[in-house]
């Protein structure tokens, strides 16, 4: 068995990022620890003051197939291009006709734009089609 992976995003608003990426990936916000109905109840129990309740958030694949994604607050904003980015495989793969892939990608791009993403550009060759986007804090990702 391979090593399990958690993807970590540094960000300024973990809650906003968690909600955006949950929408983008079909993930769900992590549940509070067992024995607590809400995260606020848990955070109260361990003495986390209200001003630190958005210091972190996490989302998980409800089917447990994909990695957990963790968002941690950092003081600085993003300033340069990501060295690592996510590719969301939403077009149906190379077996799907190019025009069909483009339609699927366009629909997801619009849904994510409505959720706060920005469309940056596209790349098309004879066999490939990708749409470059940025999330709600400017992190790059591709739809393919």
What is this entry, summarized?
Helices cover 25% and strands 27% of the residues. The protein has 144 residues and is of the alpha/beta class. The strands form two sheets. Strands 1-4-3-2 form a four-stranded mixed beta sheet, covered by helices on one side. A four-stranded mixed beta sheet has the order 5-8-7-6.
| N-to-C span | 28 Å
What is the N-to-C succession of helices and strands?
A: EHEHEEEHEEE
Helix percent reads 25-40%
Please, what is the average pLDDT?
Answer: 93
What sort of overall outline do the alpha carbons produce when their principal axes are compared? elongated
Structural class, by secondary structure, is alpha/beta
Regions with little confidence, pLDDT below 50 for 5+ residues: none
Number of helices: 3
Q: Strand portion, in percent?
A: 25-35%
How much is the radius of gyration in Å?
17 Å
Overall number of strands: 8
Largest sheet: 4 strands, mixed
As laid out across the biggest beta sheet, the strand order is 1-4-3-2
């Amino acid at each position: 068995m391979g090593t399990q992976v958690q993807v970590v995003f540094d960000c300024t608003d973990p809650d906003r990022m968690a909600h955006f990426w949950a929408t983008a990936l079909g993930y769900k916000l992590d549940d509070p620890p067992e024995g607590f109905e809400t995260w606020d109840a848990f955070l109260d129990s361990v003495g986390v003051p209200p001003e630190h309740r958005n210091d972190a958030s996490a989302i998980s694949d409800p089917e447990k197939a994909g990695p957990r994604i963790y968002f941690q607050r950092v003081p600085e904003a993003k300033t340069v291009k990501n060295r690592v980015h996510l590719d969301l495989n939403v077009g149906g793969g190379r077996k799907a006709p190019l025009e069909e892939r483009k339609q699927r990608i366009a629909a997801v791009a619009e849904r994510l734009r409505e959720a706060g993403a920005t469309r940056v550009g596209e790349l098309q060759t004879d066999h490939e089609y990708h749409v470059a986007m940025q999330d709600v804090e400017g992190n790059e990702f591709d739809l393919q």
